[in-house]
Design goal:
The chain is of the alpha+beta class. The protein contains five helices and six strands; from the N terminus they run βββββααβααα. A hairpin with a 2-residue loop joins strand 1 and strand 2. It is elongated.
Length: about 160
């Protein structure tokens, strides 16, 4: 890739150092072949925007921060760290991007979150599920806990 030097506009430079910033961008230090001045460039992997189809049929762009906010509330005063929640969201976002589907039902995203959150922290999972599945009464809440308990017992045998 040929980039013009921001100092002398020479059309060629060489890469001195490359570092991954996150799983979607790279920072590169470059040196101009003419004036030898150094500059930094950033490369960002271009992806298709993920469109979330809500339960009411409305469509909106996938928002990591919105999902993180919900997870932070579910994990309030619980062991999962923000880094673990960010990793959980990154994992979901990568899976969705790799599926090459432009529109994803919010129900699918919610199920993916609960599947991963259950492994991370069961209390946080029940909190998230109570809001996501819109528990109407204590019986529904208790049924979810009972299902979780049965699943745990059958998995430990």
């Amino acid at each position: 890739m040929k980039l013009k030097c921001p100092y002398c506009s020479f059309p060629d430079s060489r890469v001195i150092d490359s570092r991954s910033i996150d799983d979607k961008s790279i920072r590169r230090r470059r040196e101009c072949k003419a004036c030898q001045k150094r500059f930094t460039t950033y490369e960002i992997i271009e992806t298709l925007p993920l469109i979330v189809v809500k339960k009411d049929g409305a469509r909106e762009i996938f928002d990591r921060n919105k999902l993180l906010t919900g997870l932070v509330k579910a994990c309030y005063k619980r062991p999962p760290t923000v880094d673990q929640l960010q990793a959980l969201i990154s994992d979901i976002e990568s899976e969705l991007q790799n599926a090459l589907i432009a529109e994803i039902p919010s129900v699918r995203i919610g199920e993916m979150v609960m599947e991963r959150l259950k492994k991370l922290d069961e209390v946080s999972y029940v909190r998230f599920a109570s809001v996501y599945r819109e528990f109407k009464d204590v019986e529904t809440f208790m049924a979810e806990i009972s299902d979780l308990k049965k699943e745990k017992e059958s998995g430990s045998r």
